[in-house]
Amino acid sequence: MAACHLVGMPKSGTTLLLALLDGHPELQVFPEELRFYGTAKGRDDGAERLLEGGALRLLARGAAEGLGGTRDYGHVDGAGLAADIAALGARGLRDRALLEGIMASWRDRSGSGVGTPRIWVEKSPGNEYFLPVITGWFGRASAIVHMVRDPRDVFVSLSRARESVGTPLDPETFATQWGFSAEIARDAARRYPGFRVVRYEDLVAEPRAVMTGLARGLGIAWDDRLLVPTRAGVPWRGNSMHDRIFAGVGADSVGLHREGLDDAARRVIEGRLAGAMRRHGYGPVTVGPRAMFNLARQRLRRMRWQRRMEAS
Asked: For a 10 Å CB count at each end of the chain, is N or C smaller?
C-alpha cells in the first residue's frame, strides 16, 4: 500500500479529516496517533517503544469515553495487532519496514471488511517536523496533508485541553510552535509534489469541495462516505473541547477566539504571527516590525531544521 500522512498542529482539524477519510474503501485509516517518527525512528527497540505507547492500549480496550471523544473498538483485534508488532520487532524490523508492517497488520486486524485498500493513512500532529524522513522513505511525491487553522482558535482549543490536565499553555511558546509549523507548510508546498495544505476553516465551510480535491489528489474515486466522519468504521461524535454537540461537519468552532481569547494572549499571538497568519488567509492583522522579525527567525529555524533532518 502507498502512504498518506496527515500532519499539523494539535487542534487544527487533523482528527476530523482522518474521520472523513476513514470510511473510504480504498483507504486503510489508522484511527489513533501512532507517533511513529518521534518514538521509533532510528531505534532497534522501536516496536517495543510503540507497544508501550497510548495508541495501541486504546485499540485494545474496546469502547471508552474520554477527551478524544467516543471510541468503540470492540470489533478490533487489538491483542492480535500488538502480537503482530511484537513479532515484527523480534524479526529485527525497524524504520520504514516496521511502519509498513504495522499498517499491514492493521488492515488485517481492524475488522472493517470493507473494500480493498490501496493507501494507508496515519495522522500524528507534529509529523511535519519529520518531512525529510517521510519523503526519504516514501518518495517526494508521497501524499502528505498539512492541516492549518487560525492560531487564535487553536490556542483557545489547546488551552482548554491543557487546562483539563493541569498544564497551562504559554502564548509565547505556542506562537513559536505555530509559526514554525506554518513556515514548514509554506516551504513544503513548494518542495514536495505530494504535499497539500488544507485550512480547517475551508474544510468545515465547504466539505464536499475540499474532500473532492483531496480525493483527486490521492487518486481515489469519489465516495459519499468522504462526508461522513467515522472512527474505525464507527460513527464519530467529535472531540470538541468546548462542550459542543457534534452532529456532522460544521463551522461552530470557527472564530472561537472572539469570545474565548483574552487580550494579553491575543496581543502575543497576533503580534508574533501576523505575517504567517496573513499568508494563510487569517486577518486582517497588522504586520509590525516584531512580526517581521519573528517571520525571519522562523525561516532561519526552518532552514537549520531542514539541514539537520536531511543529514540524519
From this structure: C
C-alpha–C-alpha distance, residues 229 and 214, integer Å: 15
Cα of first residue to Cα of last residue in the chain, in angstroms, is 26
CA distance 11 to 161: 9
pLDDT at 241 (0 to 100): 47
Domain count, the chain: 1
For CA atoms 17, 23, 28, 31, give the dihedral sign: positive
Residues 162/168, Cβ–Cβ less than 8 Å: yes
193: cis peptide before it, omega within 30°? no
| Average pLDDT score over residue span 57-64 | 78
Residue 237 pLDDT level (bands cut at 50, 70, 90): confident
Tell me the C-alpha distance between 210 and 194, whole Å. 16
The secondary structure of residue 20, as a DSSP letter, is H
The boundaries of the domain holding residue 171 are 2-311
Provide the pLDDT for residue 137.
98
pLDDT in tens, 83-101: 999 999 999 999 999 999 9
Q: What contacts 237, CB < 8 A, 6 or more positions away?
A: 69, 70, 246
- Rounded Cα distance between 234 and 115, Å, is 16
C-alpha cell, 34 = 501512532
Across residues 211-234, what is the average pLDDT? 95
pLDDT in tens, 112-135: 766 789 999 999 999 999 999 999
Domain of residue 288, CATH code: 3.40.50.300
Strands 143-148 vs 195-199: parallel, antiparallel or unpaired: parallel
Q: 146 — phi, psi (to 5°)? A: -105, 115
- Cβ-based neighbour number of residue 258 at 10 Å: 10
Distances (CA, A) of 12 to 8, 92, 132, 135: 7, 36, 22, 22
**Cα separation values, 212 from 160, 224, 231, 300, Å:** 32, 10, 20, 35
- Helix, strand, or coil here: 264? helix
